[in-house]
Design a protein that fits this description.
The protein is of the alpha+beta class. The strands form three sheets. A five-stranded mixed barrel has the order 4-5-9-7-6. It has a two-stranded antiparallel sheet with strand order 1-2. The protein is globular and about 70 Å long.
């Protein structure tokens, strides 16, 4: 049975073991979890099916208003999630950012369309709190971290039609006007298009091409006199999923902005913004995995076919076990990056490790989220394909996680950069994995041998990929896949060593190793399989869907 005082029976013990301060927030996370799995879940279904947002660019007098109208239920929960401190607590109580990421993980289990604005608002708050000039921080930070239900939400405007993920190709121009700038250009994919404050990349007049010529600017939705800023939301995107989230195209028509970072620092700072968002993307992906597992379990326990519950059939059991093991691997990988984010705030030397783990986690968890939601839909069958059940929405929403904040190829290019000698990414990866290996006791010698074998394969893969530029460009994505799975396996092994009294941890680690290093057909460890089946009994039931 689920513990009503725990927000997650698997993840919470691991988080509190790694970061003891998280125990102080157990009750808050459990309360947040209860709200999400009830109120938020029903709203998400309603908004997706019946009441997506609509755009009112002009009022009845022809004046630009840039008003996005959301249904009242979504709008109220959009205010409530900030009132509950998902952004404000790290600033008002000096809570770790890990708390925000944990709340994001919970929120994504029911509504990515609420989680995305949280991600962007957190990114804007991070820029203002850690990098903006003091006058700008004093003027704007409170607006996004306040916890009275009146917080302004954030946006990150970087993508342009011609450039996509290549932010260096930004053509938006920033023209100086006294103490502010006027921005001219088109931002092509702006999630949370009705944000109150957005950070945007632009190139000041006369600045050189490429990344070195970019600055970063803060764009309020309204001017000091209360009138709309000088930009127009051209349209809302008609998307595959995240129907409740307004994503638009924005024409900057001399939009008034203040400079946060001039060239050449603007590009680097926007990369930090995306880094924060990528951590949220990873924990959100893990949230999707968790929800998919719960839905699949609830259905296979309830549904009978050919005289037995579906969960009694070995083929069904193996699919459930795969979702479960990949969820565990993904969750440890995503929160390794989340923990590294807080560590980097105290020690800048941890930034390479943050960037490396974030690239690995962002890639692998998104892939696993798609796989988990697809498998859940298949297990439920035709009913799962309908909007009467939540997995259809889950699958549609999950697909965006592979695209947001840079698809897999972008993460692979990031990995190549970090493996270069100047960043020492490969050395830090080896040091982390070796520390895990050294910490495995003799009783776990089977896992220790498996991890050592995997690490040797990693060395060969890195040497082969980094041999020359042609190999690097061709095999970077394959290397990204391998190293992400290797680190996830290492973290599963580390967790097993810490929680040796829980046999299911060792079984899970071994099942994952068998998946990423298959020995052949039907040669899996039956003891590990049976041990994992027993652990499924403790899974929490799925949320109630309207």
């Amino acid at each position: 049975m689920a513990d009503s005082n725990s927000f997650d029976l698997y993840l919470e013990p691991w988080l509190t073991a790694r970061v003891p301060r998280m125990a102080d927030y157990s009750a808050k996370l459990a309360e947040f979890h209860d709200w999400v799995r009830t109120d938020v879940d029903v709203q998400a279904n309603y908004t997706d099916r019946y009441a997506p947002p609509a755009l009112e660019t002009y009022d009845r007098n022809g004046e630009v208003v840039n008003r996005i109208v959301s249904n009242r239920w979504y709008a109220e929960q959009h205010e409530e999630v900030y009132r509950r401190g998902i952004i404000g607590l790290p600033y008002s109580e000096n809570a770790p950012h890990l708390l925000t990421f944990a709340m994001g993980y919970i929120l994504a289990q029911s509504d990515i369309s609420l989680h995305c604005p949280v991600t962007l608002t957190g990114a804007v708050a991070y820029v203002l709190g850690s990098h903006a000039p003091d006058a700008i921080r004093q003027r704007y930070l409170f607006d996004v971290v306040r916890m009275d239900g009146l917080a302004k939400t954030g946006g990150t405007w970087a993508t342009e039609q011609h450039g996509g993920s290549d932010i260096r190709a930004t053509t938006t121009v920033a023209i100086a006007h006294g103490d502010h700038f006027a921005l001219h250009g088109l931002k092509w994919f702006t999630s949370n298009a009705n944000s109150g404050l957005a950070v945007a990349t632009a190139r000041p007049e006369g600045a050189p091409p490429g990344s070195s010529g970019l600055g970063l600017y803060l764009v309020p939705s309204h001017l000091a006199d209360g009138k709309p800023n000088h930009y127009r939301i051209r349209k809302l995107k008609d998307k595959l999923g995240t129907k409740g989230l307004p994503t638009g195209e924005i024409d900057l028509l001399g939009a008034e902005a203040v400079e946060i970072a001039p060239p050449p620092s603007g590009f680097k700072l926007m990369m930090e913004v995306l880094e924060y968002s990528r951590v949220h993307n990873a924990v959100g992906s893990v949230g999707v995995q968790r929800r998919a597992l719960r839905e699949a379990l609830a259905w296979t326990r309830m549904r009978h076919a050919f005289g037995h519950a579906l969960i009694d059939y070995p083929m069904v059991q193996d699919e459930l076990l795969r979702i479960r093991v990949e969820f565990e691997a993904g969750s440890l990988l995503a929160f390794e990056a989340a923990i590294a984010f807080d560590e980097t705030q105290q020690n800048a030397e941890r930034r390479t490790w943050l960037r490396l783990t974030t690239a690995l986690a962002k890639y692998l968890t998104a892939e696993y989220a798609i796989a988990a939601s697809r498998t859940a839909l298949e297990l439920i069958g035709g009913n799962g394909y309908t909007s009467d059940y939540p997995v259809a929405r889950l699958l549609r929403d999950a697909q965006v996680l592979t695209v947001w904040e840079g698809p897999a190829n972008i993460q692979a290019l990031e990995l190549l950069r970090l493996l270069a000698p100047r960043y020492r990414g490969w050395e830090q990866y080896q040091e982390r994995m070796q520390a895990i290996l050294d910490g495995l006791p003799e009783v776990l010698r089977k896992l220790r041998a498996a991890l050592r074998e995997r690490m040797e394969g990693d060395r060969e893969a890195v040497a082969f990929t980094m041999h020359d530029d042609e190999s690097a460009q061709r095999y970077a994505r394959k290397l990204l896949h391998r190293l992400s799975q290797s680190l996830a396996f290492g973290l599963l092994c580390e967790d097993t060593a810490v929680q040796q009294s829980d046999d299911s941890r060792a079984h899970s680690a071994w099942r994952y190793f068998e998946a990423i290093e298959p020995r052949g057909f039907a040669v899996e460890d039956e003891t590990a399989r049976r041990g994992m089946l027993e652990s499924l009994v403790e899974e929490e039931p799925a949320a109630k869907e309207a």
